[in-house]
Amino acid sequence: MMKDQGDQDTGVMIPVYRFTNEIEAQILDDVLKEEGIPHRIRSFHDSAYNGIFQMQKGWGQLEAPESYKEKICELAEQVLNQDSDKV
Predict the structure, then answer these.
(1) Which conformational region is residue 78 in: left (phi greater than 0), alpha (psi within -120 to 50 degrees), or beta?
(2) Cα dihedral sign for 17, 18, 23, 24?
(3) 3-state SS assignment for residue 3
(4) Most confident range, picked from 1-5, 9-13, 21-25
(5) What's the total number of domains in the chain?
(6) CA–CA separation, 8 and 6 (whole Å)
(7) Whole domain around residue 23: which residue ranges?
(8) Could you say which DSSP state residue 87 is in?
(9) Which stretch of DSSP H or E encloses residue 11?
(10) Predicted TM-score of the model (pTM)
(11) 15, β-bridge pairs
(12) From CA 12, how far away is CA 72, in angstroms rounded?
C-alpha cells in the first residue's frame, strides 16, 4: 500500500517514521492530511513473501520531504503517545 497526500509538490521524500501497525499509519496519515503536510505511507507487506518483511522491518514507513521531518516526529509522539521509532 502506498498513499500520497494530495496533489501538493512533495519533492524528494525521505524515510521519517516507522510504523508498527496499520492503525498507527492511519492515525498519523489523518493528522498529517489535516495539517497539510505532504507525505507518503509505504507498507512493507509483499504478498510474494507472505509478509515476512513486515515481521523484520515493522508494518511500514512514512516518507516526507526532509523539511517536515521534525514537525512529523513531534506530531507522531503527540498523537500516538509513544516513543517514536524514527528511521
Answers:
(1) alpha
(2) negative
(3) strand
(4) 21-25
(5) 1
(6) 6
(7) 2-60+74-80
(8) -
(9) none
(10) 0.71
(11) 63
(12) 16
